[in-house]
Amino acid sequence: MPFFRDLRFLDLPLFRRYRAFKMAATRTVSQNAPPLTLQNTALLPTRRSDFPFAKPQTVNTETSTPEFAPSFMPRSYFDALFAAHGPQHWWPGRTRFEIIVGAILTQNTSWTNVERAIRNLHGARMLSPQAIRRVRFTRLAQLLRPSGYFRQKTKTLKSFVNFLFDSYAGSLSRLFSTPTAVLREQLLALRGIGPETADSILLYAGKHPIFVVDAYTRRILQRHGHVHSKFAYDEIRKLFESALPADHQLFNEFHALIVNVGKHYCRPESPRCSECSLARFLPQSILPVT
């Protein structure tokens, strides 16, 4: 049974109904609180039994469990995060192409800066593959300036759009019908697209079941003693994919929850460990004394 099969807010082709531009604010839910709800819908899963790993299902068999972090339990982490913070409504975007643009622009900058650049593109009617293909490089670079490294990002966005037209006749539907492993290699071959950007495009815009690893994910797992600084991106990704059902909406929600905790609790300096919903998983030698 597909995870979140009836939810509308995560169904990317239906993003016309979705206008959020910020991640949901952190919320603390007490044990006696009523079930979590989403504005304008009664379809939000509120029990652990609503999630795919609560029922007998086949997990992702394409990735083997790495020989490290034997105590890491992704399912328990997800339960704790979702119970405390609820659905994150992420990735914000009204179309699949807007999500792709956001995934490219968010490299080495804050989401606030990405929003400014996307607003520029909206105002100039440039948020379509056809428009990006036609616009002059200098004009596009000026629109992307708020995102930082705007010349490099202009080259990357142009490179992606040229690839889309050369290989898939400009069709995102044809692009995302390509098998995950094949498309991932194609994206990684493009200028300026690394593993995190490629996986964000695959997961959030294409609904491919691939887990996105970012700096927040790495920081949390390092702080909890599950990985160290030399672990490769794909090794960390397999930690999640080997332990969870291959479900794009589960991976979507899980990654968004990690981002939320990384921003508000598991900070590089002055972390708020004792307040974090993952505190019980933290080694006692690290948890601050209260």
**SSE class:** mainly alpha
Tell me the quaternary state: single chain
Rounded to the nearest angstrom, the radius of gyration is 19 Å
- The residue ranges in which pLDDT falls below 50 over 5 or more consecutive positions are 1-47, 54-68
Helix content: 40-55%
Provide the CATH top-level class of the domain at 96-205: Mainly Alpha
Helix count from the secondary structure assignment: 12
Q: What's the rounded overall pLDDT mean? A: 82
- Please report the distance between the alpha carbons of the first and last residues: 44 Å
- Give, in order, the helices and strands: HHHHHHHHHHHH
Number of strands: 0
Beta-strand percentage range: under 5%
The CATH architecture classification of the domain at 96-205 is Orthogonal Bundle
Global morphology:
globular
What can you tell me about this protein's structure?
With 290 residues, this protein is mainly alpha-helical. It has a domain at 96-205: Endonuclease III, domain 1, CATH 1.10.340. Helix content is 44%, strand content 0%. The protein contains twelve helices and no strands. It has helices spanning 74-85, 96-105, 111-123, 129-134, 137-144, 150-168, 172-176, 180-188, 195-205, 215-223, 233-241, 248-264. Helix 2 (96-105) crosses helix 3 (111-123), helix 2 runs antiparallel to helix 9 (195-205) and helix 8 (180-188) packs across helix 9. It is globular and about 55 Å long.
